């Protein structure tokens, strides 16, 4: 999965690795590509690398009793899986 923008006219692409933690999706930037230069996040100074790990994407609006269980990168986006028990079908509107 990627996120992209332009910085001073140079393309910037961030390679992303999503994961699920209780109640949220977190994304780690694994590599940054600036123009033709690839930089692995692990090679950056600690404080900068830490800012690019665990970025939080809140998932609001899930019915009571439903929790995120997985996130996977698929062509064109991401697939989010959730599971629940004792979920009122009226809450799924």
Account of the 3D structure:
With 93 residues, the chain is mainly beta. It has one domain (2-92). 6% of the residues lie in helices and 58% in strands. A hairpin with a 2-residue loop joins strand 3 (24-34) and strand 4 (37-40). The radius of gyration is 17 Å and the shape is elongated.
Topology:
Layout: E1 2-7, E2 10-21, E3 24-34, E4 37-40, H1 46-51, E5 55-58, E6 66-74, E7 77-84
Antiparallel strand pairs: 1-2, 2-3, 3-4, 3-5, 6-7
Biggest sheet features? 5 strands, antiparallel
- Fraction of residues in helices? under 10%
Radius of gyration: 17 Å
Question: What spatial form do the alpha-carbon principal axes imply?
Answer: elongated
Low-pLDDT segments, ≥5 res? none
How many distinct beta strands? 7
What fraction strand?
over 45%
In whole angstroms, the N-to-C terminal distance is 30 Å
Mean of all residue-level pLDDT scores: 89
Distinct helical segment count: 1
How are helices and strands ordered from N to C? Answer: EEEEHEEE
How many domains? 1
| Class derived from helix and strand content | mainly beta
How would you concisely characterize the structure shown here?
With 93 residues, the protein is mostly beta strands.
């Amino acid at each position: 999965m990627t996120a992209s923008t332009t910085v001073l006219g140079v393309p910037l692409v961030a390679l992303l690795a999503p994961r699920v933690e209780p109640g949220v999706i977190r994304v780690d930037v694994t590599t940054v590509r600036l123009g033709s230069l690839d930089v692995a996040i692990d090679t950056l100074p600690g404080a900068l690398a830490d800012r690019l790990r665990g970025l939080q994407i809140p998932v609001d609006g899930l019915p009571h009793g439903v929790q995120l269980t997985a996130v996977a990168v698929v062509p064109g986006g991401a697939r989010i899986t959730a599971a629940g028990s004792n979920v009122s079908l009226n809450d799924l509107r």
